[in-house]
Specification:
It contains 13 helices and 15 strands. With 373 residues, it is α/β, with parallel strands linked by helices.
Length: 373
């Protein structure tokens, strides 16, 4: 989902998990040596295939069989739902429709052709600002739910039956609720530092361990493997599940939400209302501020020196630097300032009990850093 100039390689371990820092550091060392010696070799694709350097395979049969096995696929297929899918021209194009084929549930897909230039999209990230057409269609037509996946198909967004965007934090909380309440499963819940405390309340309610990690799914993946965790989620809408790869999967996330609808006989808006009754209102927001590279040290020092006693009228109880600069407030509310690992951005995150306090907290975060949009 990043702009092309900030693009790079993703390396996976044999388990399907993201490569550890030990592996990526060694790859970076080797790559630097190749570049320094000027011995980069280029081979025509056809020649590489003939030599066996590149091997092609069709993952569809095994992948579709596997993700279907996690849900009552026949009940979903026969539910007669109308589902809108926005694949955002990405790698997940066609997969949801293929998984649900041969039933009365209908899938309409937007941007289903793969196109790495992502025409007309600011970025193929499944958040509200990039899903205008998708949300408009949900509001106009009789869809049960809308499912969206990002450019490489590992992240998941959704809209309700009225065309309202369900935030990535609400989506994670709904998935956790579904696994704990609807399916009756139990296990550790892993979340990144910048995602919702709704799952903390759900973990406490259902007697599950809650584990927090720095941002980056490699950290969540390691904990998933170590603990055989039930589920892991991050703020950027990536969710991983026990029994599958220790990695995110946007298509499986969508199937789980469809299964939740069929098992509960509720609409997305009804599920959200029930979630709010269970854990109370939680409002989340994020502001991304582009900065000049040479301003980073000054911004970092200003935030490091900041010691507010309250944010948006709520007392600050602690601060830490697990990943960025986090100010924890009474009752678990929080404000986080951290630099992007891939782009020259400062991200200001906050989760608060009301929209008014959320906007105030985001403004405080910008003031602490001495930067504004």
């Amino acid at each position: 989902h990043n702009p092309a100039r900030w693009n790079g390689f993703k390396v996976k371990l044999p388990t399907g998990a993201p490569a550890t820092e030990t592996v990526t550091s060694e790859l970076e060392r080797l790559a630097a040596g190749v570049l320094a010696e000027g011995r980069v070799q280029r081979v025509e694709l056809a020649d590489a295939e003939q030599r066996g350097t590149i091997q092609r395979f069709d993952p569809a049969p095994s992948y579709l069989g596997r993700i279907r096995s996690f849900v009552d696929i026949e009940e979903i297929r026969n539910a007669g739902m109308s589902v809108l899918v926005d694949s955002m021209y990405g790698a997940a194009s066609g997969w949801t429709a293929a998984a649900l084929a041969e039933g009365s549930t209908r899938v309409r897909e937007l941007h289903g052709e793969r196109n790495p230039s992502f025409p007309g999209l600011r970025a193929p990230e499944p958040i509200a600002s990039n899903l205008g057409e998708f949300l408009g269609l949900l509001a106009q037509d009789d869809f049960a739910i809308g499912l969206a996946t990002d450019g490489d198909g590992d992240r998941f967004g959704m809209g309700d039956e009225h065309g309202r965007f369900v935030t990535q934090l609400q989506t994670f909380a709904l998935l956790v609720y579904y696994l704990l309440e609807v399916r009756g499963e139990r296990g550790s819940i892993v979340r990144s530092i910048n995602t919702t405390r709704m799952v903390d309340k759900l973990a406490e309610r259902y007697g599950c361990e809650l584990v927090e990690t720095p941002v980056g799914f490699k950290h969540l993946s390691a904990k998933m493997t170590e603990l055989d965790a039930l589920v892991a989620g991050e703020e950027s809408a990536g969710f991983g599940f026990r029994g599958h790869l220790p990695e995110r999967d946007g298509v499986l996330s969508g199937l789980y939400m469809l299964d939740c609808l069929t098992q509960t006989k509720q609409t997305p808006s009804e599920l959200l209302a029930g979630l709010q009754k269970l854990v109370g209102p939680h409002e989340y927001g994020r502001v991304d501020i582009t900065m000049r590279a040479n301003d980073r040290d000054d911004i970092q020092q200003r935030v490091a020196d900041a010691a507010p006693s309250e944010v948006a009228g709520i007392k600050v109880t602690s601060r830490d630097t697990l990943d960025g600069f986090r100010f924890t407030l009474e009752d678990g509310w929080w404000l986080l300032l951290r630099f992007s690992g891939t782009e020259p951005l400062l991200r200001v995150h906050a989760e608060m009990p009301s929209t008014e306090q959320l906007q105030e907290a985001l403004q405080v975060g910008q003031e602490l850093a001495g930067v504004t949009l």
